[in-house]
Amino acid sequence: MTDDDIRLAQRLADAAGDAIRPYFRARFDLERKADASPVTAADRAAESAMRAILEIERPQDGIVGEEYGVSREGAERVWVLDPIDGTRSFVAGRAIFGTLVALVEAGRPVLGVIDQPVQRERWIGAAGRPTTLNDAAVTTRGCAVLGDAILATTGPGYFKPDEMAAYDRCLAPARDSIWGGDCYNYGLLSLGQLDAVIEAGLKLYDFAALVPVVEGAGGMMRDWQGRPLDADSKGQVVAVGDARLMAPILALLGSG
After folding, report:
1. Cα separation of 241 and 116, whole Å?
2. What is the mean pLDDT of the chain?
3. Out of 3.10.20.740, 3.30.540.10, 3.40.50.300, 3.40.50.2300, which CATH number does the structure's domain 3-131 have?
């Protein structure tokens, strides 16, 4: 991962934002994919714009995108794209969705961008560097006790019944919680506005960009078994702003 990669990731986010903004709070058709998740012309236009740049700038690198799948499977370096993470929020006119751009090297996320193109907020995380929001460094807040923590998750519908029960075990002692937010919650965690995010059912394009952002701000991300997240992770994700919260959350998730 180089400075050129970081600049390229920003250009990808710029291109996606230019494709998305004309559709925001406009009239457009909504389709359903095979898994019943929503997709719009904005999702497809944004991913197409990013892929077109990558085919010119990084023709040897792989691509994994939510809408158009995998290119150059097996490549050592892979760009992972989610053009609109939070399509339901986008369709509802809520500016808490985001474009996710990640670079994965040898299976590990090393560069991540969370871009909110309407509010023009952009988080950049890169391995070994501090996370920034609009070029200013950001940090998580200290919170070592679950009873002091604000938890977040996108929604109950993303959990299987046993996963929902596990989340409820974490929620019971927490100070407060919020529903909704998708990738935006991880940006808020990096700012110290939230203390933990717990989710399940995520794909690589949902979480790859989040890892460098959260960890570069001083937080930690793991799967529900406490393992670092990589290209083979199954989509059960815990993010904490204070590493001391990880152990008690993992204990509750696994205690059912």
Report:
1. 21
2. 95
3. 3.30.540.10
